[in-house]
Amino acid sequence: MKKVYSARKRLTRYFAYLLTVTLLFSLAYTVYSSLTIDRQLRYSSDAALDVYCGSLVQETDRLAFFNQYMTATSREFRQAAARSADEFTTVSLMYQIQSLMKATVPTAGLIMVFDDRGGALRFHYGSGVLENGALLPEHLRAAHALQERCLAAPETEPEPWLVLESGPCTFLYSFSRYRHLYICSALELNTFAALSMQSAEMDPQLFFDQGGVFITGREAAESKGLRPESVYGLRSLFTKYTLTHRDLPSLPVGLTMLMPRDGHWAFTRVSFLVMLCISALSILLYVGVFRMMNRFVVYPLQQISSLSRQMADVDEKNIPQIEETEPLEELNTLRESLNSLAAQKVHLRKSQEDKEAEKEHALLQYYQLQTRSHFFLNCLKSLYGMLETRDFARMQEMIISFSNHLRYIFHDNLSQVPLRAEMDEVRDYHRIISMDSRQPLILSQEISPEAMDCMVPPLIVQTFLENSYKYNGRGREALNFTVRIDRVEYEGAQRLRIRLSDDGLGFSRESLDELNRKVRSTGFDQYHIGISNLRRRMGILYREDYELACFNGIHGGANILISIPAREEGGEEP
């Protein structure tokens, strides 16, 4: 008894799939929204950090230019560096230099001048560094630490920018020297970070690092679980902060910014609420529609699907019918219509199959028997000549081969033949034309044993042997015809590969164009009729599952390559 499927279970499964797809789309919408918001947050973080990096580079370039200007161009600085100036002149020059320093000092930095003896230290702090405008002791200690670091530097060209940590202060400084007088400009990095964050939204935090080690805000970074190596690590969607880092090629420090994700999660909560609302509405809608369809559609669907499955493999003696009756008039009408439809479908399919079988059988016979009569006449003339010369041995061999040939080509059978039967026909035909022709025809065979039991269309090799003998010969010179057949595996399927070749004149260009055309007319061909008919027969037997290619060899001669499904007698039809 055939297995019967439940339409209700199938309908339930479909609705479950539909509901699952809807929920997946809702989840995808939420994830997409979160990723979009996260991408916007990262873009904003990257853009803000680029602004801070640009501001830092601009400020350091300005201070470096000021140092170079003072040591290379400023007349006051160069005169003050001359030890020959008197005290009054030195005081006046230093006053002017301090005025330039005061006008140039950055809000988050320091500019100072001192001599190589460690005395006469003069400096100006920016307003952002001072504590409510007051100079604290740690500021004075930081200035002396910078002075000592500059004095201890080697006489060679100093590094453009250096880092110094002094108490709570971390300086990025650069200095220049003219004779015995030094000028040093510095940025206090903690103050620079604090001032940069004053106008920023979403409360970001800025950290400076050197070689992956934080030199500002260490305690704040550790409180957020940010370690030095995480500066170069991957950024996760589920962390509380967006981490952005930049290395500055012209400076010995890098910038790291932490952007909180509070706004991101606020927007994400909205996406989750939208997803929950859509999911709840979808569930309610699907449940209601399912109950309605289960009441009015499931039964007819069960009858239609059951009858369709039964009609897959039936004949006129076993037409499926729906026997049970229903109290509803509409369902009884449906049952009668389905029974009538089943009977009509079986009858029409049987009629169509009979017509197709008759048509294919007639076409195969037409193509297989379509040949010229002069071959038979030549054979009879040859037999008559042998009779006159009383060459009874050759005559007997000729009659046996000729009768085998006639029996083979007039065989009324739609199925294929084993390859060994085809090769017997090829040898019979070869004996006939060898006895009837003055042109020597040499037949060579290279056939793998496992291919001999494969089924092939009749005359698949003999057709090309005859074609080579008729069209590719060279007068009375010997003609070599080679047959190579083996089984190969192609794209996971077993194929029978047939390679035929001769050393004759080969195909003309017009013949090649015509023979390699797979879509052909059904009319009568004037030349190469056997090859054309063979292609048509293969089209009937294999549909599109075959290949036939004709071409000329590099050194001349006709070449044919055929590929068909490899199956043995009793196997499944292609």
List the helices and strands and how they pair.
Layout: H1 7-72, H2 75-80, H3 87-104, E1 109-115, E2 122-125, H4 137-151, E3 162-166, E4 169-178, E5 181-188, H5 189-197, E6 205-210, E7 213-214, H6 218-223, E8 241-247, E9 254-260, H7 262-296, H8 298-310, H9 329-369, H10 374-388, H11 392-409, E10 417-418, H12 419-436, E11 441-447, E12 455-456, H13 462-471, E13 479-490, E14 493-502, H14 509-515, H15 529-542, E15 547-552, E16 558-565
Parallel strand pairs: 11-13
Antiparallel strand pairs: 1-2, 1-5, 3-4, 4-5, 6-7, 6-9, 8-9, 10-12, 13-14, 14-16, 15-16
What's this model, at a glance?
By secondary structure, the protein is of the alpha+beta class.
How would you portray this structure in words?
With 574 residues, this protein is α+β, with helices and mostly antiparallel strands. It has helices spanning 7-72, 75-80, 87-104, 137-151, 189-197, 218-223, 262-296, 298-310, 329-369, 374-388, 392-409, 419-436, 462-471, 509-515, 529-542, and strands spanning 109-115, 122-125, 162-166, 169-178, 181-188, 205-210, 213-214, 241-247, 254-260, 417-418, 441-447, 455-456, 479-490, 493-502, 547-552, 558-565. A 5-stranded antiparallel β-sheet has the order 2-1-5-4-3. Strands 11-13-14-16-15 form a 5-stranded mixed β-sheet, with helices on one face. It has a 4-stranded antiparallel β-sheet with strand order 7-6-9-8, covered by helices on one side. Helix 9 packs antiparallel against helix 15 (529-542) and helix 11 packs across helix 12. It is elongated and about 150 Å long. It starts with 6 loop residues before the first helix and ends in a 9-residue tail after the last strand.
